[in-house]
Amino acid sequence: MTALSLIVTYVLLVALAAASWLFGDTASSLLIAVAKTLLIALVFMELRHAHASDRIIAVVAVFFVLLLTLGTFADVITR
Amino acid sequence: MPPDTDVADLALAHHFPDLAKQAHAARLGMWLFLATEILLFTGLFTGYGVYRFLFYDTFKAASRSMETDLGTINTFVLITSSLTVALALHFVQVEKRRLAVLCLGVTLAFGVAFMVIKGIEYTHHFQEGQLPGQYYHYAEVQGPGVTLFFTLYFLMTGLHALHVIAGMTLVSWVTLRRERGLALELVALYWHFVDVIWVFLWPMFYLAKP
Predict the structure, then answer these.
(1) A7 within 8 A of B83, measured Cβ to Cβ
(2) Min CA distance, B196 vs chain A (Å)?
(3) What is the least distance, in Å, from the CA of A58 to any CA of chain B?
(4) Does residue A26 sit at the B interface (CB-CB below 8 Å)?
(5) Number of C-alpha atoms within 13 angstroms, CB side, residue A32?
(6) Is the confidence at residue B8, as pLDDT, over 70?
(7) pTM of the predicted model, to two decimals?
(8) B200 contacts in chain A (CB < 8 Å)
(9) What dihedral do alpha carbons B166, B170, B175, B177 form, nearest 10°?
(10) Is B143 helix (H, G, I), strand (E, B) or coil?
């Protein structure tokens, strides 16, 4: 990982945070938060260079997050 | 795994055939730990989402009463600290130890700044009566579910603040011990995770424009 790629990622993160602040609504800000998380995970946490087993853990964690949130909201919304 | 991380300073435990496998096991353990942490916060985020759905207008009004400027400053503070800890790891890998120590010091300073800003914000909440449960007495935002908003706010940001303190302790530890390899890499992973949690806390509690 080069220092330049880290700094470019940081600039993108700042730009995305600024976009969140400008839009100011929760829905678009949460979508931007997902984009920021991807940048942090792939570049700062070096997930794109990580061992396959580490990446599987990250993907499974995201799957469990979706399962928990979507299952809960499906229940709440359809009551 | 970052191929450049130095694992030569590790002591080989008897149940590993070599240092590379030991380092891989440590990274795997850290990712598993972070996965459990993600699920812990997901439960809280889901609870927040459900109550926001049930008490939408009140949660929106409560969000508007938050100090968005302070929350936004803290967002930039944590993002910048994520950069400095990533740079510290990079400088360690290219044998620039002094720059690495400098970056870790800056990371710690940002951690302190985050906590100070959070402390200022909490103080304002206490003074205005924006408190959880029966202690809530903020006149400008009333309605069903308003105490739940502040209960969840203090629970989630408080738990996150504890993680920031833990992260600062770990960053201090790797700096003082002059760790240059795997320990620093694992601490950096933890610090980035703390940043990611705030990336979601910020829009959920602070950004609620119509």
Answers:
(1) yes
(2) 6
(3) 7
(4) yes
(5) 25
(6) no
(7) 0.93
(8) 30, 33, 37
(9) 140
(10) coil
